[in-house]
Design goal:
The protein is mostly helical. The chain is built from 19 helices and no strands. The longest helix has 19 residues. The chain is elongated and about 90 Å long.
Length: about 475
């Protein structure tokens, strides 16, 4: 008798990814930064994002909704039996204004039910009801004209957490370190639950961006624990998901000033774990893209905390083998620091020299590219502090057997800013690089490198004569 009673009670959702929304077909993805992202969701006559089928009347004879039928975050297959009745609620246009908030909360509650997408033939009707309900929630939040109550905030965070926060399956051991030349060959996995996840992300983005959200009240629900779980999602392999995460995290950073130091610290910890422990993370480029915007907004003079962030987190990011995954975003962040405080140029250049690759030629070319960008933002006093170790490394690059490395090093002489540094400090620099130029002129196998070397030698002789 006791077993029969217990079997009827709702069970807690499993924390593993097997009980989450996986499997099934995809919808077309569009970038959440652009206004076209709603094309997959449909558009209402008012111009708000909503599926056109929402115009259909949701049967006014459904009857009263019983929120005790479903456990929060419940999985319909948890008991191995068919799920309880999952019915669409009335549309917002079908209820008086005084009841809309209550209906909104009820719709949030039924959207906490998580469906398994591994078998697209299961729960087809229920999945579509949830999808349509999510679209109605997007429309409601978009057109909200009153401040969200704390009850609404709590239910929103509960629904978003139930749908988005999940554990990603670890990759096989042989894929934990990706070589730079394999990056373009890797096929990123697309989350098969995207038909629901996309709308949940769109809903939460509009909720966070809404002028009706009071940040002072919402910070109790969008708290440190929630932010940490949101940051964990950046390890997703689904590019579409990371595009939404970038936008949402940036909005949270802008709206919740109280959380800014914590977001920076938590991001630092992700970088530390990546650089010094795993060298495996799918969202480093996206996190750096957000940080590039944050660094751009730093006030002057720079705080000591921000300088430590540069030295302890950003510069060590040059160490991993998979630098190519995020080098462009990292270079932008580094250059932003030098442009804001030119005295940091010496620190950055010495950091590059510390992590300079020895056997990875493609990575060495990336270092030379970044070095040129940093030197363009460098002032003469800072350049003079580091020019000796810098040009010793450039001399080694000139003699590299890999023609692309030698060629990229020789191209530095095409930069007017760097050329002026060499002219001003020729008595120090020319004795360092001239032996390397002579070796190239005599022995380098590549004709392009040989020709460029002769041009640099002619330039150096002119400087000596002057």
């Amino acid at each position: 008798m006791l077993k029969q009673i217990l079997s009827k009670l709702p069970r807690k959702t499993s924390k593993t990814s097997d009980n989450r929304e996986h499997g099934g077909s995809h919808t077309t993805f569009s970038n959440p930064y652009t206004s076209s992202r709603g094309s997959d969701l449909g558009t209402s006559k008012s111009g708000n994002l909503i599926n056109s089928q929402l115009a259909i009347n949701y049967a006014s004879d459904i009857g009263p909704y019983d929120d005790k039928k479903f456990a929060r975050g419940a999985n319909p297959k948890a008991n191995g039996n068919s799920m309880p009745s999952y019915e669409a609620l009335p549309g917002f246009k079908d209820v008086p204004s005084s009841e809309k908030q209550s209906l909104f909360i009820k719709k949030l509650i039924i959207c906490c039910v998580i469906f398994d997408f591994t078998d697209p033939t299961k729960h087809i009707k229920e999945k579509e009801i949830k999808r349509q309900t999510l679209l109605e929630l997007v429309e409601y939040v978009t057109s909200a004209n009153g401040k969200f109550t704390e009850t609404v905030m709590q239910e929103v965070i509960t629904m978003v957490s139930a749908n988005l926060f999940r554990t990603f399956s670890p990759q096989p051991l042989e894929n934990t370190v990706i070589e730079a030349f394999d990056l373009e060959e890797e096929e990123p996995s697309m989350d098969p639950a995207w038909p629901h996840l996309q709308i949940v992300y769109e809903f939460f983005l509009r909720f966070v961006s809404s002028s009706e959200l009071d940040a002072k009240l919402a910070k109790k629900y969008i708290d440190h624990s929630f932010i940490l779980k949101l940051l964990d999602l950046f390890d997703s392999e689904d590019i579409r998901e990371k595009e939404y995460l970038k936008t949402i995290l940036h909005r949270i950073y802008g709206k919740f000033m109280v959380h800014r130091p914590f977001i920076r610290k938590a991001t630092n910890n992700i970088f530390y774990h990546f650089v010094f422990e795993t060298e495996k993370h799918n969202g480093i480029a996206e996190l750096l893209e957000i940080l590039g915007s944050i660094v751009n907004g730093f006030a002057l003079p720079l705080k000591e905390e921000h300088k430590l962030f540069l030295v302890r987190a950003l510069i060590p990011l040059h160490k991993p083998k998979c630098l190519a995954m995020y080098q462009q975003q990292l270079s932008y962040c580094i250059t932003q620091f030098v442009e804001k405080d030119c005295k940091l140029a010496d620190t950055v250049i010495r950091g590059l020299l510390k992590y300079w690759p020895i056997t990875n030629s493609s990575k060495e070319v990336m270092f030379l590219n970044e070095l040129e960008e940093v030197l363009e933002a460098t002032k003469s006093p800072e350049f003079q502090h580091c020019m000796v170790p810098l040009f010793r490394q450039i001399a080694r690059c000139l003699n590299s057997a890999h023609f692309q490395v030698a060629e990229r090093a020789l191209f530095l002489w095409n930069n007017d800013h760097i050329e002026n540094f060499i002219k001003q400090n020729r008595k120090v620099i020319l004795p360092i690089i001239f032996p390397a130029l002579e070796r190239n002129a005599r022995n380098h196998w590549n004709q392009a490198v040989h020709g460029l070397t002769l041009n640099v030698i002619r330039f150096s002789l002119i400087l000596i004569q002057s």
